[in-house]
Write a structure and sequence with these properties.
By secondary structure, this protein is an alpha+beta fold. It has three helices and eleven strands, in the order ββββαααβββββββ. Strands 1-4-3-2 form a four-stranded antiparallel beta sheet, with no helix packed on it.
C-alpha cells in the first residue's frame, strides 16, 4: 500500500481505476493500493462474524445503563469504547462455541431449554423458519436471543460460528433464509442464548428444501 502525501492532481480521489489500483482514505489519510478480489468474500466464517457484529450493534442499543457502564470499565484498559469491547467479546466467544453475553460477569453454566415446534415452510429459493420460544422446564427460560445455524445436506449439523446465518431477539419467532438453491436439502439448528452467555439445547430441522 502506498500513502499519498498530496491530493491526486490537486483533488481528492477515491475508487478503482481499471481494476488495477484503488484510491481511498483511512482515518483522513489518502492512500493507494493494488486492486484485489477476495478469494472467498462470503465464506461461512465471514458470514457468521458479520451476523454476530450485526446482532451486537442492535443488542448494544438495548443494554441497560448499568451494563453499558460495566463494559465501559472493561474497555478503558484497552483504550477502546464499550461498544468495541462488547463486540470483540461477542465475536470471540462463539469461536470457542460459547454464547455472546450482555453481562460480562454472567454465569453461563445454566441450562437453557430448546425452542419447540420448529418448522420450515418452503418458498421460492427460500425457507421460512418458525418456532415457539421455550419456557422453563428442565432448564432456564430464554431471555435474550435465538441463533440459527444452517448447512447443506439432510444430516444433523454441529453448530458453530462458521454455519451461523442469523440471530434474532427473543421476542421474534421466525426467520427467512433467502438465496437458496431449489431442490437442495438444507439442515438447521436453532438454539436460544441467554443474557449471561448460556447456550440452549439444539432444536434440529433436517432435510428442508426450497421450491
Amino acid at each position: 500500500m502506498a500513502r499519498v502525501t498530496g491530493p491526486l492532481f490537486s483533488m481528492d480521489a477515491t475508487g478503482t481505476v481499471g481494476k488495477a489500483i484503488v484510491f481511498s482514505k483511512w482515518k483522513g489519510r489518502s492512500y493507494v493500493r493494488r486492486h484485489a478480489v477476495p478469494s472467498n468474500p462470503r465464506s461461512g466464517l465471514q458470514v457468521g462474524i458479520r451476523v454476530v457484529f450485526g446482532f451486537a450493534a442492535t443488542a448494544w442499543a438495548a443494554l441497560s445503563d448499568l451494563l453499558v457502564s460495566d463494559w465501559a470499565e472493561i474497555a478503558a484498559a484497552d483504550s477502546i469504547t464499550g461498544l468495541n469491547a462488547f463486540s470483540r467479546d461477542a465475536v470471540a466467544r462463539p469461536r470457542r462455541n460459547e454464547g455472546w453475553r450482555a453481562d460480562h460477569e454472567g454465569d453461563a453454566t445454566d441450562t437453557v431449554t430448546a425452542p419447540t415446534e420448529a418448522a420450515a415452510e418452503p418458498q421460492l429459493r427460500s425457507l421460512n423458519l418458525s418456532w415457539t420460544n421455550a419456557v422453563a422446564g428442565g432448564g432456564e427460560a430464554p431471555d435474550w436471543c435465538t441463533a440459527i445455524h444452517m448447512a447443506e445436506g439432510s444430516e444433523a449439523i454441529e453448530p458453530d460460528i462458521s454455519n451461523l446465518v442469523g440471530i434474532v431477539p427473543i421476542a421474534t419467532e421466525a426467520f427467512t433464509i433467502r438465496g437458496l438453491t431449489t431442490g437442495q436439502a438444507y439442515s438447521f439448528v436453532l438454539r436460544h442464548v441467554n443474557q449471561d452467555g448460556a447456550i440452549g439445547a439444539d432444536a434440529d430441522l433436517l432435510d428442508k428444501k426450497p421450491t
